Structures are given as structure tokens and as C-alpha cells.
Amino acid sequence: MTVNETLAQASNAMVYGAITVFTGSMVAFSISLAKGRRLEALETSAQRTTASHQVRMGSTETLIKPAVSTSVSVDGGRGEGRRAGNIGMALTWLGTILLGLAITFRGLSVGRWPLGNMYEFSLAAGFAVSLVYCVMSLTRDLRWLGLFITIPVLLNLGSAITVLYAESAQLVPALNSYWLLIHVAAATVCIGAFTVGAALSGLYLVAQAAEDRVTNGLAPGRSAAIAQRVPAADRLDLLAYRIHAFMFPIWTFAVIAGAIWAEAAWGRYWGWDPKETWAFITWVFYAAYLHARATVGWRGRKAAYIALAGYGAIIFNYFIVNIYVQGLHSYSGL
Amino acid sequence: METLRWLWRQLTSMRIALILLFLLALASVPGSIFPQRGTSPLRVNEFLKDNPTSGPILDRLYMFDVFASPWFASIYLLLFISLMGCVLPRAVEHYKEMRGLPPEAPRNLSRLPVHLQWNSNSAADQVIKETQIAWSKRGWRVRTGDDWVSAEKGYSRETGNLLFHLSLLVLLIAVGVGGIAGFRGNVIVREGSGFANNVTQYDTFTSGRSYSADKLPPISFKLENFISSFQRGGQQNGAPREFYADLLVKDDPSAEPREFRVEVNHPLRTAGITVYLVGHGYAPEFTIRDATGNVLWQDAAVFLPQDAGFTSSGVVKIPDTVPQLGLQGYFLPTVSADFSNGPISEFPAADDPGVYISAWQGDLGLDSGMPQSVYRLDTKNMERIGIEELAPGETWTLPNSGMTVEFTGYRQWATFAITRDPAKGWALGAAISSIVGLSLSLLIPRRRAWLRVTPAAGGGNLFEVAGLSKTEAPGLADEISHLANLVNTKKEN
């Protein structure tokens, strides 16, 4: 099987296109945040809970949903911030599509699943992050989150084309298995969703800090600049929890699929290879997060830090273990 | 006794479980930083040689056997005791709940997170009876009183939670049993040579405490052909592209031999054992004759690859001559244009093979009683008599003895890992049921709903429907409003 150079080059062009478009959406989201409607006074989660969570109605027909609202602006006005946010959203969709095409062309150019080296994983991970964000934005207003998604996507794509780039080529034999698709695709989707989760947990910590200052009668402080432009802390926390809770079984599946593949390829399903070890550490952190969130004295800020530690383990596993640690998973292509 | 109870309460508390989880993550870290005996014993030896002071201290702290260390084991055993101490009482409780009915409706429904009310002239008992049927149909477990309905659903959330934790316990046991009742060995087989499943044939062999090596199933195979190919040109020049081993397998001594192709990701599974292809290399063939032309030695010697170009090093030992003879050197699958960097192969495929060998005379040291590597020459009591480059077919006449060394060609060899893990299926089953349990426990919402009817001040009845989510799943209000719609009252007043 030879490499189709035209398609390989088309893929590269798409990646550059996606980077350009995501840069545009980052700028648009920044403008949207900067000009976005400031909440006049920072409302704390506690105040809002008493106001809106108790739904008392005269009849079922007029029931108001007390579901988690993620809308920031109260009146949904048509300010400049809103327009910029819409542009950012549209550009994010376009960038996601371009990246999807880049991955497709890359796969077609070599006639295999394009998940064979770090450059290809990075494209897939960037695609997963932006796709998860886009899909989530279908059912709720997430324009305020856009900036915190496009930044990691751009950093990732930038490192992909500069440091991790590998020419289109065939696979090393160890990767020649349908488990490549199952295991790596599941892991990549998880990385994408956990990136969104980490952004939310990080924003939650900032928002919570600002709210705590208000509750304690202090000036909102620097964190308020962000906190005023995103939903209240408890909403951020809940949204982060839902993502993590939804992804944790899938992460478990990704690890188990890897174990099944390892059994077929290396003769054991678990061997504490560095990559396996860090996948395990990641798993333990997210398991701890889910438990912490159900434990008095740990929920809230401590739980959010644990989620961020789990994400740190993912990043460590991806960049440090892949490149610097000798192990069986040495497929970086570098 | 009081202290013990206190300790037990502490151990089974969520706080301690969380701390143990962190310790488990933290304890795994050195296992990814330091080389581990289980996976790369050679790198451990290298590390110990390079770090003569810190090495032995780290070794005493089990830094090279992290996952088999007593402190790692104590963390996960405490974690599992804590887990069981938490899960088993919950299992009992859940069993009772599953068999029982939801608790009675609370007196004041208006305090609940979702609450709806309306007035109607409908009669209480009729509405309650109909509501019981309607809610049951929607999968709720329903209990009724004189003027209330209490319903609950989502029991499988807790079932899933318990299933997940019990699966982890089964998984841990399966891992342990697999280690005790299994074995793992490595063997190098050259093209044209065979292997019979017998401990003496293995290059390395480790087995669990309860596995005795005489239970090895009597399979045998011959390596007929080994094929390898590599990327030519481009950024990944020389990267392996495919390799496979064609075997002639006899599943037991009396069986008909059958052909089987072992590839990476495609092992041979037979008689409870699995045969994996894990490595390959070259074995140059030599014919060594004495001065009169009698053949002293004729075979293919396994040389071990040293780099990505498959520059391979190895030795040949001839103990039958006086003085004894040893050859030491390199096999290069593709001889490079210049030797300025020493003998280094340019490409892993055998495009232009050659050997670069030195001959040694003296005492091989085989009789000293010390175990010796077959890949190393102990030159302490030997003297080098010459060094030569040979292409296939070329013969080198050794100085002063008249002996000749002919490099006749090469064969390929493959390393096979042969393993048995009788608990593998249990581990897989436990892993699958853990995902099922996890999904149930994280995605199924557990909810309660109530209906209460009270006589209204101005005649008729006040109907109240309320709901409570025991989890953070969205959609409670929708569901409760739907339940309220199922309460069949005449909309009056």
C-alpha cells in the first residue's frame, strides 16, 4: 500500500486551515467575553438557588423547568458580545469540520485509520475536544466557554504541526489491529471530553473564589472579571460533574479495550507499562473525583482540584510518557 | 474493642477511601519512572550499575518492583477492605429496599425541590387508585395510603454501583490467581529449527507458585519461515512494516502437524497456552574447519540486534580445539558504505549482509563452573588473533592455526513469548461487568415522587405532586410534570 501524496498534502492544508479558523474563533470568543454583558452584581449560587430552584405553580401547564441553565446574559439581548459569540461559535463549527476532513484525508492517503502516531493522535484529540464542545452547545448556550476550548485546541494543533509532525506512512505491525480503532478512538474521545471537563472545573474554581469573596463581604477581586462572564459556580460545577460522570465509564472501557488488545499483542492484559500506569493513575483520580463529589467536606473545591489532577495525569501521559519514557507504547513517530 | 471499632469505622469511611485512592495513584508513579524488573530486567541491571550508591537503596525500597512491593500491596489491600466494609452493608440495605416498598409520603410536599398543586372536585380514592396504576406502568415502584401515593424508581443505580465494586474485587482476585497459577516464558527459535514445550527449551521461564513446570502441555512447533519488511525511504525509513512467523504446529505429540501463521496481534492459542511473536533478528551461519578441512562446527548463531538498523552482536564458541577458539563480532544486514562509525548496519533488511568478526584463542572459561552468557565471550584468558570482514560465501583463514571460518549466509530467528493465565476469562468478565455496573450507577437517575390529596378549604380537594432526585441527573421537573399529567382529575375551580 503506497501513500497517496495528494491526499496527504490536502490533509496538511486542512490542518492549517483549521488552525486559521480556530484562531478566528478564539478572537471572536475573546471579544464576546470582553464585551459580553457584565452581571451588575455577582450573584452567589446560594442566592440564586433560593430564588429559582423552588418551582411553585398553580397548574402543571405553566411548569418552569428548573434544569441547569447555562445562559449568562439575563435578557438575552443583542449586544456586540453576543454577535461576536455567534461568530466564534460558527467558526468553531467550521474549524471542527476542517479538522475532521484533515483526519479523513490523512486516513485515505494511507488507507488505514489515522491513529498511528502522535501527530495523528493530536489531530484526533483536537477534533474530539471541539466536537464535544460543539455537540454540547447544541442543547445549551456555551458561548462563554468557547475561549477556554479554542485555546487548548490551538495549543494542541500548534504542537502537532511543529513538534509532533510525522509524514503519512504505514503502521508499525504492533498497531495493525482493529483494536487500534476501538481503543485509541475511545481514549481520544475521553481526552476531548475531559478537556472540556477540566476547563469547566477550572472556571468553577475561579467563579467559586469570586463568589466566596462576595459572600464574605470582600471586593470581588480579580477573579470576578471572569466570574462575572460565566455562569454561577454551582452550575459550572454541576456541568463539569455531568461530563466527568458520563465519560468515566467510557474511559474505563478505553482502558479495558487496551488491556484486551495488550493480551493479543504482548501476551498479558496488564503489565504496568508506563502508559498503562498513567492510564491507571488517571482512572484513580477520576474515580476519586466522583467519590469526593459525593462526600461531605470534599465536594466543591477539593473535588474540582482532583478532577484537574486527573486531567494533569492525562496530559503527562500524552506528552511526557509518549515522548520521554521508554515503554511498549512508543509509537510517537518521533 | 472500642479502638478496633473506631479503626474499622475510620477504614470504611469515604475520607480514608479517598486518601487510599490518592496513595494508590502516588505509589504507582515510581513504577513508571524507574525501570521495573517485571518488564525490563536488563534496564534495572543497567541502572544499578550506573548508580552504585543510590541504586541499592532504591532497590531496598522496592523501587524496581513497585507493583509487587509490600507497600503497594498494603495500599490496595486496605483499599479493598475499606471498599468491602462500605459495599457489603450497602448491599444488605439495598436488598431490603429492593424487597420492600417506598417510604410513606412526607406530610409537607411543598418543601420539595419540585412541587405542583391544583384544586379539583375529583374524589381522592378514585384518583389514588388510578394514579397507582398509571405510575406503575411508567416503571415506578408505587405504594399507596388513604390520601397519598409514594413512588420510587432507579433502583438499578445502586445495583450497578454494587456490581461495579464487586467486579473490582473479582478482577483483583483474577489478577492474583493468574499470577499464581500461570507461567510465562521466552524462547528464541531459528528458521528451520523447532521448539518442544519443555522447561529446558526456554531461554527464560517464570511460573506462579502453584504451577509446576511438568504440567506444561506437550505442544511443539517448527519455525518454517520468518518474513519481515521495513519502510523504505521517507521520514520513517527503516520502521518495521510487517513481520510474521510461519509455524508447523503439533498440538500434542501424536497430532498431525498443522500450519499456523503467528503475527503480532495474532497469537497461536492451543492447549491452554498462548504463543506470541515478540521479537526477531538474524543468525549468521558459519562453517569452521580445521587445517585439514574437517568440519569442527557448522550452525547458525543467534546474534542479538543492537539498534534500529539491526546491527547484531553475538559469539561462536568452539570448546573442542586446543587451544579453544572463540569468535565475537557483528552481523550487519546492510553493510554501510564506510566504517568510520564502526560496524553499523544502515538498514534493518538483509540487503547486503556482512559480518565483522574477531577471532580469539585461549580458555573460554566454560569449565569454571560459573554460568556464562551464550551471547558474550569471556576474553579474560584469551588472546585476539585477528579481525576480518566477510561477505556471504567468503572464507577467512585464521593466522597460525590454518583453521578456516566460512560465512555461508544467514537465517532469521524469532522470539516467542509463551504464556498461560487460567484466570484471564474471569478478569475479562469482571472488567465487562464493572463497565455495566458503572454505567448503571452513573447514568440511571434515582427519583422519588409523591401525590397527596387534602380537602380544600372551599370544598373539593387540593392535589399536590412533588418529586425529589437523589442524584444530580437533569430532567426531574419534566418527569414530575409528566407524572402530574397522569393524575386524572377533572380540571375545575
The overall strand count of chain B is 21
Amount of helix of chain A: 55-70%
Q: Give the assembly state of these chains.
A: heterodimer
The number of domains of chain B: 4
Q: Which sheet architecture does the biggest sheet of chain B show? A: 7 strands, antiparallel
Low-confidence stretches of chain B: none
Tell me the span between the first and last alpha carbons of chain B. 65 Å
The overall pLDDT of chain B, averaged over residues, is 89
Compressed to H and E, one letter per element, the order of chain A equals HHEHHHHHHHH
Distance between the termini of chain A: 22 Å
Shape of chain B: elongated
Overall form of chain A? flat
- pLDDT averaged over residues of chain A: 83
Strand content of chain A: under 5%
Give the tally of β-strands of chain A.
1
Instruction: Please name the two chains that share the biggest interface, counting residues whose Cβ lies under 8 Å from a Cβ on the partner chain.
Output: A-B, 71 and 70 residues
Order of helices and strands of chain B: HHHHHEHEEHEEEEEEEEEEEEEEEEHEEH
Radius of gyration of chain B: 36 Å
Helix content of chain B: 25-40%
Overview of the structural elements:
The complex is a heterodimer of chains A (334) and B (493). Chain A has helices at residues 5-35, 45-52, 80-110, 118-137, 146-162, 178-215, 224-227, 233-266, 274-292, 301-324, and one strand spanning 55-57. With 334 residues, chain A is an all-alpha fold. With 493 residues, chain B is α+β, with helices and mostly antiparallel strands. Chain B folds into 4 domains: 2-95, no CATH class; 101-154 and 445-486, TATA-Binding Protein (2-Layer Sandwich), CATH 3.30.310.80; 183-280 and 417-435, no CATH class; 282-411, no CATH class. Helices cover 30% and strands 32% of the residues of chain B. Chain B has 9 helices and 21 strands. In chain B, strands 4, 6, 10, 11, 12, 18 and 19 form a 7-stranded antiparallel sheet that branches. In chain B, strands 1-21-20-3-2 form a 5-stranded antiparallel sheet, covered by helices on one side. In chain B, strand 10 and strand 11 (273-289) form a beta hairpin. In chain B, helix 2 packs antiparallel against helix 5 (70-99) and helix 5 (70-99) packs antiparallel against helix 7 (155-181). The longest helix of chain B has 30 residues, at 70-99. The radius of gyration of chain B is 36 Å and the shape is elongated. The mean pLDDT of chain B is 89. At the A-B interface, strand 1, helix 8 and helix 9 of A face helix 2, strand 1, strand 8, strand 11 and helix 8 of B.
